Amino acid sequence: MRKRYLMAPGPVAVAPDVLLKMAEPIIHHRSPQFSAILEEVRGGLKYLFQTRNDVLVLASSGTGGMEASVANLCAPGDTAVVVRGGKFGERWAELCEAYGVRAVNVDVAWGRAVDPADVAAALEAHPEARAVFVQAHETSTGVKHPVEALGELVRPRPETVLVVDAISALGVYDIRTDDWGLDVVVTGSQKSLGLPPGLAMVSVSEKAWALAERSTQPRYYFDFRRERKALGRRTTAFTPAVSLIIGLERVLARVREVGLPALFAHHRRLAEGTRAGVRALGLSLFPEAPSEAVTVIRAPEGIDGQEVVKLLREEYGITIAGGQAQAKGKIFRISHMGHLDEWDMLVALAAVERALHRLGHPVELGRGVAAAEAWFAGAAA
Amino acid sequence: MRKRYLMAPGPVAVAPDVLLKMAEPIIHHRSPQFSAILEEVRGGLKYLFQTRNDVLVLASSGTGGMEASVANLCAPGDTAVVVRGGKFGERWAELCEAYGVRAVNVDVAWGRAVDPADVAAALEAHPEARAVFVQAHETSTGVKHPVEALGELVRPRPETVLVVDAISALGVYDIRTDDWGLDVVVTGSQKSLGLPPGLAMVSVSEKAWALAERSTQPRYYFDFRRERKALGRRTTAFTPAVSLIIGLERVLARVREVGLPALFAHHRRLAEGTRAGVRALGLSLFPEAPSEAVTVIRAPEGIDGQEVVKLLREEYGITIAGGQAQAKGKIFRISHMGHLDEWDMLVALAAVERALHRLGHPVELGRGVAAAEAWFAGAAA
C-alpha cells in the first residue's frame, strides 16, 4: 500500500475524524435532529463569513454558487463588471455570457492583481453596472485581488453589488464580508474547510436581496429566494447533501473553537515556510500578490511544469496541481489548504527538489527543505 | 446510545461498508486514478439505466437533474405536457414556469396513475409539445405511472421527447430506457442506490441531444453539452462530489454483480411482505398502482398520519415519512429502498402497530408482523 499525499488546491485532504464523522449513519433531512445541525451550521457560517447576513448552503460544487449569484442578481441585458485575471475570472465572464449579461471585462495579466483604479474606471464608464464579479483569490494563478478596496468603490452605489468568489480564500485569510461591504461571497466545501467537494455556500446582503427579488432570470434549484424561505423553516429547499453537512457542522465547530485568527495564522505559516524553501532553491513565485492558500511556483527555464506534477503523482504518490489554460506547463501549485501541516510542506519541497533533479534542473537536494525547516523552527537567517 | 432506523423514501440507510469506502482519503478529480473510477461508473450507469446513451453525473440533488432536463430540452415559449399527480409532478410544472415553458398539465388525482389516453389527447391538442414530463414513480403518493405506454406515444414524434423522473424508480423495478424509448431519465444517489444525497444522474438520447443543442435557455453548471464534452475527456465539467462518486463506483459494482433482476426481486419482496402485514391490520394502501419503492398507507379514520410518524421518530427511533401538501396527515410511507431487509420490515410493522395502538386505534398487536413473517417465510395462507 503506497502512502498518498493530496496537496492540490482543492479537493484537499480531509482529516480522518471528519471522514469518519461523515461515515456515521445517514439521518433524514426533514427531522428535528437535522434542523438542529442546520442551525449550528448557520451560526458557524456567519462566524466564518464574518457576516450577519444569512448564508445559503447549496448541494453543488462552487461553480453552482457562482452561477446562482449571476442568475439571482443580474437580469438578461444587465451590465456587469468582471475582473478577468485567470481561469475563474473567465468563468464569471462565461456565466455572464450564458445568462445574457453584458460583461465589461477588466482584463488582468495572469499572475497580477487587479488595480482598483481600473475597476473604478469601468464603473465610471458603466454606471448602470448591476454587479462587479471578482475572485478574492484566483486559484489558477495564486493571486489575491484587493476586494476590500473594491468594496469601497461599490458600497456608495445603491444599485450595484460586489460579488466575491472566495472559494479558495474564505477561512484561509481575513475576508470581512460586512466590514468591507462584500454583498455576495461564495465559498465551497473542498478548500479551507477541508471537506470533500459537493457544497457551495453563499452569503447575501440586503442590497443583493433587493436584486434577487427583481431578477427575471429563470432559476429554480439555485433560486436564493427559495433557500431563504426554507432556512426560515430550519430546512433546505431541496434534499441537502446530508453527509457533507454533518461534516460541515463538525468543521465549523472546530473553526469557532480555534478562532479565525489561528486559522489564518496556520495558512500564513505554511505558506511562508514553503516560500522560504522555494527561494532557497532559486525558484520564483508566479503571482505578484500571492495568497496564503497556495504557493504557485514558476517552472524554471527548460522545465515543463506538467512533468513535475506528473513525476510527483506517478513516482512519489504526491498530488500537487499544474497550471491551467495559458499557465499550463509554466507553473506548479502546492496547496496550504486542507488537512496539512508544516511537515507536509517539507515533504512537498523534498519531492519538488527530487523531481527537478530528475528532470535535469541543477538543484542541491535538501537545500529547500533545510531552509523551510529553519524557517519553521524560527531559526531562519 | 439509542439505535436508529431510517426507513423513509430518501435519504435512505447506507450500508456500513459503503460509508467506510467513502471515508477513505479523498483523491484528486483531475487524475488518472479518478478517471478510471469515472469510466467504471459510466459503464455501471449504462447497465443500471439499461441504455447505450451516455449518463451524465451532476453534483446536485435530484431536482438539479430535473431542472437540467427542462433547461436543456425546452426553449422559452416552448410547450410541454406535464403529468401532475403529486408533489413531484407539480415540481415539473414549477420548473416549466420558472423557465418560461408553457406547461399543458395532465392533472391526475393524488394516488392515481395517469391514463395514457389523457397524455395522448394532450399531445393531439398540442402537437408542438417539445417534451412530456412525468414521474416513473411519484414518491409523494407511491404511484407508478405507465412510462412504457407513454414511450409508445412519444416515440413516433420526431420533435418530442419523453423525460422521466425515475429518482425513486430506477434500480427499484424494471425501467428500460432504450427499449421503452425514454429519452431522458433522471435519478438520484439517495434512493435505490443506497448512497447519501448529492448526486443526480441523467441519461440523454440522441433525440434529446438534438434539442439540447438547440435550446436557448441560459445554463452553465447544468449544461448537458459541457458534461458530455468532459465525459469524452474522462472527466467532469466541474469539481465532482468525489466521495459520493467513490461510493457510486462501489454500489454499481455490486449492482452488476447481483444483477438487476435480483435487485428488482429484492424490492418486490420487501414491498409484498410489508403489504401482507398492512392488509392483516385492516389498513389500506393509498396508491392505486403501488410501486415497490415505498408502501404508502392510508391513515385510518380519526388518526393523523403525522402523529404516527412523530411517535415512531421520537419514541421508537424509527424514521418513516408522512404525507406532503394535500396528503399531509392522510398517509404515512415506509421505504423499501436503501440498506434494508425483511427483518427491518417486521420492525416497521411492529412500530406502526404500536403507534396506532397508542393513538387509540383498535389494533391487535403482532397481527401485521405475523402476517408479514408468514409471507416472508413462504407460509402465507
Most extensive interface, residues per chain?
Answer: A-B, 56 and 56 residues
- The structural class of chain A is alpha/beta
Bin the helical content of chain A: 40-55%
Q: Kindly state the number of beta strands of chain A.
A: 14
CATH class of the largest domain in chain A: Alpha Beta
Average pLDDT over all residues of chain A:
97
Q: Quote the beta fraction of chain A.
A: 5-15%
Strand order of the largest sheet of chain A: 2-10-9-8-5-3-4
GO molecular function (chains A, B): alanine-glyoxylate transaminase activity; L-serine-pyruvate transaminase activity
Binding site for substrate (chains A, B): 333
Keywords (chains A, B): Aminotransferase, Pyridoxal phosphate, Transferase
Cofactor (chains A, B): pyridoxal 5'-phosphate
Feature tags:
seven-stranded mixed sheet, Alanine--glyoxylate aminotransferase family protein (chains A, B), 13 helices, PyrdxlP-dep_Trfase_major (chains A, B), Aminotrans_V_dom (chains A, B), aminotransferase (chains A, B), transferase (chains A, B), 2 domains, Aspartate Aminotransferase, domain 1, homodimer, alpha/beta, Aspartate Aminotransferase, domain 2, three-stranded antiparallel sheet, 381 residues, globular
